[in-house]
Amino acid sequence: MLQQAWLGSDRDPVTSLRNFWLGRKAGVLTLITENWLKRSPPSLKGVIGKQFNELKSHIETKLAEQRKRIEEKTEAAALTREQVDLSLPGVIHPIGSHHLIRQVFQEIEDIFFSIGFSVVEGPEIETPYYNFEALNIPEFHPVRDDMDTFYIDLPEGAPTPLLLRTHTSPMQIRTMEKQKPPVRVIVPGKVYRRDNPDATHSFMFHQVEGLAVDTDITFCDFTGTIEYFVKQFFGAGVKTRFRPSYFPFTEPSVEFDVSCIFCGGSGAAAGGGVCSKCKGAGWIELFGAGMVDPAVYGFVNYDAKKVSGFAFGMGIDRLAMLRYGIDDIQVFFQNDVRFLKQFP
Asked: Is residue 210 helix, strand or coil?
């Protein structure tokens, strides 16, 4: 009978059993009361009543025990579901890393920091004075043409024009305005030029500007610093050379070349033919540099007769492309995870 009561209900089993035995209308004890206890002769009521109370007490005890067992099983099942199995392998979440450009930035900063340079940063929106004039680039110089520079469209009556800096060189002037010699700084950051995007050009790219000014800096100090950096960055086996060039804010000015790191400076490809990177020359152009033009010192109240220095500007994207054999500058800005995962 108990089993039938248990299996015959789709409700809580303990509640079903309780209703089966103790229900007020159709419970077993109710039926006993109506059919036996109330109808029994007076001489037997005491005996039947005693047995009835014992049965009722027994049923209530068993129901309480059954409820306790079910609650314990339910709690144990819940704990089992929530328990963490420490023997299972953990969930591996993807871990991000610095972008390749940021990695190259950091390596360059570390190299120059090791020889006494500090790192400074400046605004990407500049005035023509800091971007051009204070760097000995007069008003009608070709690089100030609208075709080369992003000028910001300002409301009419704005006090001064604004532009996106075309190089990080403005921080040379801002640093020398605030600091007297000696000065040794590098300036990493983004720069902007109106170039059509292709495999080697982008309208936004990254640059590191370097400046050293003191009372006795010579061209030998300049060449030694640059050669130290290149050999630290590309390896001790590379060769270097300078070629005469022109930049408005340095005099003399040079282009700095390094022996081709792909063909070892031979100009020949490993599989025969001409090296595609250096076009058979054996040399790769890296960046421009030179001794600071004395005219620049006049904008920062330095005495050109007492101080001298050198400056250089290198494209970080180009250095990264050479270092890691990347053919297209655009991949730096496409956020392709397949590319980024190659440089953890």
From this structure: strand
User: DSSP label at 330?
Assistant: G
Instruction: Check if the beta carbon of residue 128 is closer than 8 Å to that of residue 159.
Output: no
For residues 74 and 124, state if they share a domain.
Answer: no
Q: Which amino acid would we find at residue 335?
A: N
The verdict on residue 226 lying in a domain is yes
172 and 46 fall within a common domain:
no
SS3 63: helix
91 in any annotated domain: no
CA 81, 82, 88 angle in degrees (round to 5)?
85
Which two structure tokens, joined as six digits, stand for 134? 């204070």
Sequence length of the chain is 344
Task: Please give the helix or strand (H or E) that residue 270 lies within, else none.
Answer: none
d(CA 116, CA 279): 37
Q: Classify strands 250-259 and 283-292 as parallel, antiparallel or unpaired.
A: antiparallel
Pick from 21, 23, 15, 17: which is nearest to 3 by CA?
A: 17
For residue range 238-276, what is the model confidence (pLDDT) as tens digits?
898 989 998 889 999 999 999 988 888 788 887 778 888
Residue type, 331: V
pTM across the whole model: 0.70
